[in-house]
Structures are given as C-alpha cells and as structure tokens.
Amino acid sequence: MDIEAFFEGMPFASLLGIEVTECGDGYAEGRLEMREELSWNEDELMAHGGVTFTLADTVGGAALVSLVDQPVPTIDMRIDYLSAGTGDLYAEADVVRCGSDVGTVDVEVYTVENDSETPIAPREDGEAIGTLIADARGVYKTG
Q: Alpha-carbon distance 42 to 79, whole Å?
C-alpha cells in the first residue's frame, strides 16, 4: 500500500489541508496550516476543535497504517483540549498497541504561532517545537 498516496487522496483531510509529513514504524507526523476558514472565532485565528481532532485522528491512523499496511477505520478517539490552537498545527503519533483486531495510538497536537519564524518540526532532541494544545488516544480497527 502506498501510504503517502492514500493520505494525499483522503478528501476530507485534503479539504482541511492536512499533510502527513512522516510515516513509518508505528510513528507519524502531520501538519496543517491554520487559516481563517478553520477558526471558530471570527475576531482571532483559533482552530476549531473539530480541526484539531481531525488532524489527531488522521495522523494517529497514519502511524497504525505504517504497521498494518491497510486502512484502519477509527473505532474511538478521546481528546483533551489543553489550549487554543492559534497558529499552524503539528501532530505526532506513536502506536501503543497493534493487535490483530484493534490498535491504539497516542497523539499530541502542537501549535506554532503564525508570526513565528520557527518551522513546525521536532527539534533535534526529539521534543516538538510549539505549545501542546491537545492530547489524544485513538483506537482503530486493524483486522
């Protein structure tokens, strides 16, 4: 399965502008450029919770797809919103468990202010650049 093509061809993720930037060995990264249409607030750019959730779900699924080499429908996802996403969004996902029927993935979503010159990418020490805005755990169907 061509993982990159699979996620590039996902209509809803494409509509939002989600890009899976890295995917392999049970790990995935993705980003989304924040824009006015994705904000819940007309006075200030703030990511709607559904946008943050969709990024987490998509990147979480990508991490698991990298292990099972097939689409993985979401069974359940729990997300804790910790702060408003006021800039571009970046997510990292790690597979916690990959079973024959279900898989579990932990996802963290970060924001980087739009006026920041810092790119959305992990630092060399492995820590993400930006503010942690959401913490999620997804459960996906693997078999």
A: 24
H or E stretch covering 106: strand 102-113
- Tens digit of each residue's pLDDT (9 = 90 or more) over 14-72: 999 999 999 999 999 999 999 999 999 888 889 999 999 999 999 999 999 999 999 99
> What is the rounded CA–CA span in Å between residue 110 and residue 92?
9
Rounded distance, CA 92 to CA 8, Å? Answer: 18
SS3 call for 5 = helix
Residues 6+ apart with CB under 8 A from 103: 64, 67, 68, 72, 95, 97, 139, 140, 142
Q: What are phi and psi of 127, to 5 degrees?
A: -85, 145
pTM equals 0.90
First to last CA, the chain: 16
